[in-house]
Amino acid sequence: MQTGCFRAQKHIVRRKRAGQTVESSERHTKIMSLRTIVGIATLTVLGCVAGMFYWLHARGKQHVPEEVVSPEPAGFHDAPTPAKAPSAAPAKSHLPAVSKKAVTPVDTALPLRSGEVLEYTANVSQLENVASLRLQVAGRGTFLGKSVWHLQAFAHTQSPLRMVFELDDQFDSYSDAATLASLQYEMRLNERGQKVESLQRMTATGKEPASPDAAQARVLPGTRDPLGFMQYLRNFDWAKTPEVRCPVYDGHKLYDVRAKLRAASEKVNVPAGDYLASKIGIRVFDNGVETKDASFTLYLANNAVHTPVLLEAVMPFATARVELLKSK
Question: Which residues, other chains included, contact 62 with Cβ-Cβ below 8 Å and sequence gap of 6+?
């Protein structure tokens, strides 16, 4: 497969306040590059704070913003609660014995934990808790007739950085329950007073309809968004296949992402505790060329649910760590 064809067509709905100035091309490229770096690792919060850590010279009272719950898109329905078995004995059947056993549909969905919440803190170089991140599995349902997982992420800058760079972002993913291929990816960004809303319906053929408030994003078959990609890495059988490759769309561009098992068991210490974890190296390719300005390492706990406990990002100007605070 040629990686040079990894390109997505999209239209993004952007809402700006009047009187805002247009950023220079160089500054825009730098910000987008940072956002891409951690978007691939689902920890988009670092894409905005890593380039701002030099500004940390103030001290102030920490404020934790409230999270806004956005409505689910048209076409999404929660999975029905299993009905209780009737207490009355069923009537005796006169059908042949062979037809008495009903065939139970096979559930091919990956075993994500509905309601799971993972909270992280982001540290950049020697500066701690510059941002917070929450990843959660909102639930399972159907979207446009397909069984999906609804995945969410919330990112916020923390004081004192918040005094100069206020960020409150929300991401929603509706990913195929069995493969975690993305059906729709939504970004609601609020950064320095600039609000941007982007709802993108993934399509590999151009035939899948988008709702009136969403745009089509032309991607390759099997493309995952950052949130689905993280869950995919958690459920991948690393013992059987130590390397995986797939297209990932971060809301702006389509990338060829390759992840490889570097070590099966390493000791990791984070605020949530001590873990033995699998070390996964992540490489990102843009139009067939590997991005050399940053490297990423993801640590998945060697427990039953392969909890992501640590992400390390080494960049030319800083080293960032996203550490697990708590899980539930």
Answer: 158, 159, 162
Residue whose structure tokens are 């919330």: 154
- Domain count within the chain: 1
CA 151/CA 139 separation, integer angstroms = 7
Closest C-alpha among 141, 154, 231, 224 to residue 187:
154
Is 86 within a domain?
no
Task: Give the whole-angstrom CA distance, residue 274 versus residue 321.
Answer: 16
pLDDT tens digits along 15-59? 333 444 344 444 444 444 444 433 433 343 444 343 333 333 332
Task: Report angle CA 159, 296, 189 to the nearest 5 degrees.
Answer: 45
Angle made by CA atoms 154, 261, 242, in degrees to the nearest 5: 115
- Asked whether residue 218 is domain-assigned, the answer is yes
Q: How far is CA 232 from CA 178, 296, 307, in A?
A: 10, 17, 12
C-alpha triplet 6, 9, 14: angle, nearest 5°: 130
Residue 178 lies in a domain: yes
DSSP string for 248-271: EE-SS-EEEEEEEEEEEEEEEEET
Q: 275 Cβ partners below 8 Å, 6+ apart? A: 267, 268, 269, 299, 301, 302, 303, 307, 309
What does pLDDT average to over the chain?
76
Q: List strand residue ranges (DSSP E) for the chain, in order.
A: 76-78, 117-124, 127-143, 146-157, 168-176, 182-191, 194-203, 215-218, 243-249, 254-270, 273-286, 289-290, 295-301, 308-315, 318-327
Characterise 124 by phi-psi region: left (phi > 0), alpha (psi -120 to 50), beta (else). beta
Task: Give the bridge partners for 268, in sequence order.
Answer: 275
Q: How many CA atoms lie within 13 A of 279 on its CB side?
A: 10
What is the DSSP code string of 39-54?
A: HTTT-THHHHHGGGGG
Look at residue 164 in the predicted model and tell me its pLDDT: 83
How far apart are the C-alpha atoms of 72 and 78, rounded to whole Å? 10
Report if residue 102 sits inside a domain: no
Domain with 36 in it: 3-16+31-63+111-327
